[in-house]
Amino acid sequence: MGYYIFSYGIKTDQLIKSIGSNDADLLNGVLDTETFKLYSDQDFAGSVTTKHALEHLIFGKPYITESAHSYWYAFISICAYLGEALPATHEIKLGYETDIINDLLDKDFNLKINIEETLINGDHSFPLPQVRDWPLCGLINKGQLSALKTQFENINITDEMLEALLDEDDEKEMAYDSIKQIKENISYCIGKDLELISFCH
Questions:
Q1: pLDDT tens for the 201 residues of the chain, in order
Q2: Name one Pfam family in it (predicted).
Q3: N or C: which end of the chain has fewer CB within 10 A?
Q4: Rounded to an integer, what distance in angstroms lies between the CA atom of residue 140 and that of residue 173?
Q5: Is the separation of the CB atoms in 201 and 127 below 8 Å?
Q6: Please, how many CA atoms are within 13 Å of residue 2, restricted to the half-sphere of its CB?
């Protein structure tokens, strides 16, 4: 199993405004998403349901902080609805895959960067209850995206390279593919005037 990092392209202001918006259409739209259904199917007994957490978020009701995780899963569902699915959708396994990515970025591209700390930086201003453990969240704003694009600009990983690596080194192919996808998502967000939000659970 393990924990995985995944991302969306978002407009931060739009997301902040959605909280406490009293927007019934937003509620119904989110309830109809596959993301919401996935989380609501995994509600914990004794905790606020994902649906109730979503209603609390949208209609500005008091949070039950003991169920902070439910509000975050509801928030992820809002991101999936209001945000944009990115062109590269591979979920990165925390620990195992991120360690390989960090090592190869350093050795092969002379780029000293911790990819999990970059994506899951805890840097956001969303008015949600503090969660004890999972999910984790990170927001990369437009200025940070531009800086990352510059850092990644000399990385050129082609489909042909990935194909060749399949026969040589599965782990390296996996990590190279993730690096390629991260670079694509950075460029996509910049081109669409979006921020990049990531979660891990």
A1: 789 999 999 999 999 999 999 999 999 999 999 999 999 999 888 899 999 999 999 999 999 999 999 999 999 999 999 999 999 888 999 999 999 999 999 999 999 999 999 999 887 778 899 888 889 999 999 999 999 999 999 999 999 999 999 888 989 999 999 999 999 999 999 999 999 999 999
A2: DUF7691
A3: N
A4: 26
A5: no
A6: 10
Residue 57, both tokens: 């978020």
Contact in structure between 104 and 172 (CB atoms under 8 Å): yes
Domain hosting residue 142, numbered range: 4-200
Contact 151, 179 (CB under 8 A): no
Question: 193: which 2 tokens?
Answer: 């005037």
Cα–Cα distance, 95 to 116 (Å, whole number): 9
Q: What is the 3-state secondary structure (H, E, C) of the chain?
A: CCCEEEEEEECHHHHHHHCCCCCHHHHHHHHCCHHHHHHHCCCCCCCCCHHHHHHHHHHCCCCCHHHHHHHHHHHHHHHHHHCECCCCCCCEECCHHHHHHHHHHHHHHCCCCCHHHHHCCCCCCCCCCCCCCCCEEEEECHHHHHHHHHHHCCCCCCHHHHHHHHCCCHHHHHHHHHHHHHHHHHHHHHHCCCEEEEEEC
- Contact status, residue 187 vs residue 4, Cβ threshold 8 Å: no
Task: Give the total number of structural domains in the chain.
Answer: 1
